[in-house]
Structure formats: structure tokens, C-alpha cells
Protein 1
Amino acid sequence: MRNILHIIVSVVLTGVLGCSQKPEQVIMTVNGPIPALEMGITLTHEHVLVDFIGADSTGYHRWDKQEVVKKVLPYLAEIQEHQVSTLVECTPAYLGRDPWILKALSRETGMHLVTNTGYYGAHNNRFIPATLFELTAAELSDIWVDEFENGIEGSGVKPGFIKIAVDGDDTLSKEHLKIITAAALTHQQTGLVIASHTGPDAPAFEQISVLQSHGIDPSCFIWVHAQQGTLEGNIKAAEMGTWISLDNVSLDREAGSVYDVAWYAERIHQMKEAGLLNRILLSHDAGWYKPEEENGGTFRGFSGIFTALIPALTNQGFSREDINQLLEVNPHNAFILRNQN
Ligand SMILES: [Zn+2]
């Protein structure tokens, strides 16, 4: 009964507040809650470590925590020079999420790091253990809510958002419908924003409908890899309140190729023309330490937004206020905990 009341209250509040920011609102970092305004400049989708070996073989035995910390520290130092104070780490459980590493990196740098709960269904569910795969949406949600209430695996670290992933097909599979449903149930109990690895338009809108069928406002949903969607799709979803995550800015692509820096500048410019700059999140989807490679292999840094994209936007007439909207205001509004009193 208490749960039902709680759900009713959060649905009503979501409707009334539309997930807008209140001054006292907080985000959950690996060191506990902080006022959203303290997030500062934030990268909303990056990775410290990713282990693609598959759910059945991954585990903490696959990497040396100190070696990973040592490898990643210089890349965090680099973005601290660009005044970045918060990094949202998007690696889910069974793909290399390691809350102890994130805590160590936060302690060494003084940066805020944010981690997640949820499972990654994309790539045909190979990153979800077979035993968990049989669970219902409500049972999956119970696990994720427990991580929010009691911390992740005894680390004391609580997730700051729900991270899920679905395949980019035109229709969501039965399993991926279950995962977005579990995310909806978890959101209702925790107030955590839902970030879903999605890509194209069709699965984005299908997930938004599932959330709406649970009374959840689209402003509680981050369309991850929205650059793979159409401009029309991005605009339509943003008009509904969805967060549009343009998150694979990279200096590695040749100028003139799709998704080069100029492509991102143009997409952001088009969103601004549509009056939707306040729905955009920017990041590199970069990193990361690879356990299967010697000393973690090649690491892609997190600074292209500052060295190339922001200068390109400034050249197109973006003001300081516009840049602040993209790098500070939007991340704060996206990652606030929705149902704190
Ligand atoms: Zn990613």
C-alpha cells in the first residue's frame, strides 16, 4: 500500500513539476548527494572502463583497480583544465562498472563522479546474465531499487541514474520492453533519470510511450546516442521534453565525414533554431580502459568538446550563455533526483 501511495504521489508530482529543477534539488554522486548547482561543467556520457567479454565471463578479477586508476587519472586532469567538475560514467553492471574505481578517481581528483544502476540489453542481451534474464520487470526493478537504497555490492556507492540499453530495431523486443518497464518502475521509486542507449528514432519513441503509459514525463528520459536519430525525431522528442544526448563527439573522424565535429555543431545549431537548446546533452562517449589489452589499450580522451566543438559553436555565434546552458544547466536539470522532498 505504501508503495502504491508513493507511486501515486510521484506520478502527481511529476505531472505538476514536469521534472523541473527546484533550488534544493540534488544529484547522487559516488560520494553521496550534492546540490545540483555544485555539478558545474558536466560530461554526461563517458566511460572509465568497459569490458566487452560478456556477462558470463566478466568480473572484478578481470582488471587491477590501481592500474585502471593510474591509467585514467591523466585524462581527468586534462578535463579539469577545462573546468569540468562532474563526469557521468555510463558503464553498466556486467560491462565493467566498478564503483571502487570511481570512488578512488573522485578522491584523487576532487571531481564528482556519477554511476548507474540498470542492465544493458543491446547486442542481443549478451551483457545480461542468463539467471537475471528470466526475472520479471518488477523483479529487475527490485534489484535496481535496492542498489539505490542500500548501495552497490557493499561499496556504499549509490547510483545517480538508471542506465539501460535496447537494440535499434523498429520494434522493441519482448526483453527490451521488459527492461524499459523495469526502468519505469525503478524511476517511480527512486526519482532517478533513465538514460537508455537507443540510437534511431523508432525505439526512442517506443520507450517514451512505455514511460508515458506509466505516467512518467518524457523529461525523465535521456535518449542516448540521439545523433543516430533524424533531426525531425530529435526535435519532436525534445518538444515532448526528452533529453537529446548528442554524445559521441570525437576528434578522430576526418573532417567532412558523418559525425565529425562540424556535424555536431550543425545539429546543435538546428536544435537551437528550433528553440530546443535547453534539451541537449553533450558528451564524447569516450575512454576507456580495456581489460583484454595490455595496460588497458588506447584511451580516447574527454576534451574534444572543449578544444574543437565549443570553438566551432562560438564561431557560429553561440553566446557564453548558450554554452553554459549546454554544459552546466542542462546536465543539472537532467540528473536531479526527481522525488526528493
Ligand atoms: Zn557509452
Protein 2
Amino acid sequence: MLITSRSAAEYRAMFDLTAGELAAGSVLDCCAGGSSLTAETAGRVLAVDPAYALGPRRLAARVLAALADGDRIISAHADRFEWSWYGDPGRRHAIRTAAARAFLTDLRRRPGRYVAGALPRLPLADASVDLVLCSHLLFTWSDRFGLDWHRRALAELIRVARHEVRLFPLVVQGTGETVPFLETLRAELHGLGHRTRLCPVPYRFQRGADEMLLVERAPSQ
Ligand SMILES: C[S@@+](CC[C@H](N)C(=O)[O-])C[C@H]1O[C@@H](n2cnc3c(N)ncnc32)[C@H](O)[C@@H]1O
């Protein structure tokens, strides 16, 4: 799996986030990879990813390699992507490169905001952040992680969230197909008292990926 880098602008679009929502409370980015949401919010957002255990040198090599690998995948599968949000491949490359550089700089400046951890067990206390953002792990990698892993990963993201979890995208990477067990998991969450909604988002890139899953945590849990 590539350790990709996305900017705060991409996160705002993927999660239909307002500046107010980002500034209002504590936010967790899991899995953050080489993204610059933490850097661009002056460390307000806590970043978690298992790749942080690699250490700065190996992590930097993987993050920078992912920029070129991502470009190669996109040009080899041009039919899977649309450009209305980025404009063109050059602009996307520039945004991703700037995000990777901002991440690597901030990693040295604020190492304590980058925590090594992997779903489905995060090194965080119950209800320790207001909002959890999860981009490009659950659902998109459902060809690698199955229903039971998703069930445990979702439970863990909800455990650490005081209010809300947002997940994007909801389609399988590569094929863009819908995830067969998404509705099963939503029904299970409803049974536990959580509320979920599929919400349209302004971000466009992978064809078919135009909504996020928003989970509102049951108040008493
Ligand atoms: C495709 S990248 C997404 C990074 C970033 N959120 C983005 O949208 O560009 C997927 C990330 O998931 C991380 N990852 C892999 N397995 C994980 C797990 N079990 N728990 C949390 N993160 C994981 C990888 O290290 C990688 O950085």
C-alpha cells in the first residue's frame, strides 16, 4: 500500500469540512500517511499511521516514492479518474508534492503529533478526540481487508471519537466498485445506537467516489 500524501484542501473536499469544523475541536487523521493536514493546522490534528514506526529516513523515502508511483498508476489507468476537482495531472502532482514536503518538514518539527498505530487497535484513549477522519483505508482496500476487519476497525474509530467519524472513499480502489458489506456494517452500527449517513462531497478523482460515510456516535457510549 502506498503511503500517499494529501493536502488540507483535499481533506476539506473529501470530508466536506468547513474551516469552523476543523478549528472547533480535536481531530484525528487515521490513517494520515504522508498527508499535510497536521502540518497545515499547526499541529492541531493528530496524525496516526503504522508507517510512522519506520522512522523518519525510511518514511521519507516511502512517501517520496509514492508520489511517482501514484503518477504511474494514474497514467496507466486514465479511465478510472476524472479531473474536475484537480484540473489536470500537473496540478494534482504539485498539490501532492507540496503536501509530502510539508509533512516531512512538520514530522521533524512536531514528532509528537505523528503517532505510530494501526487499526483495529489504536494507542488512544476512549473518546479522546472530537472528530475522526479516515481517508483511503477502510472500504477502498476491501479487496485486502474483509468484513470482520472493517467491523473491528470501525468500532475502534468510534471508540476514540467523542462525536463523529467520517470515512472516504466508499468504493474499492482500482475497480471503483461498491463495497458489498457497507450496508451490513451500517445496519450493525444502527443496532448499536450510532447514526450513519452517506453524504455527497465536493471532491472528485476516482470515478464513483463522490460520497463519505458519516457516523455520529451514540451519546451514551
Ligand atoms: C493510501 S494511504 C492514505 C493516506 C492518506 N490518508 C491519504 O488519503 O492520502 C493508506 C495509509 O494507510 C496506512 N495503513 C495501512 N494499514 C493500516 C492500518 N491497519 N491502520 C491504519 N493505517 C494503516 C498506510 O501506512 C498508508 O499510509
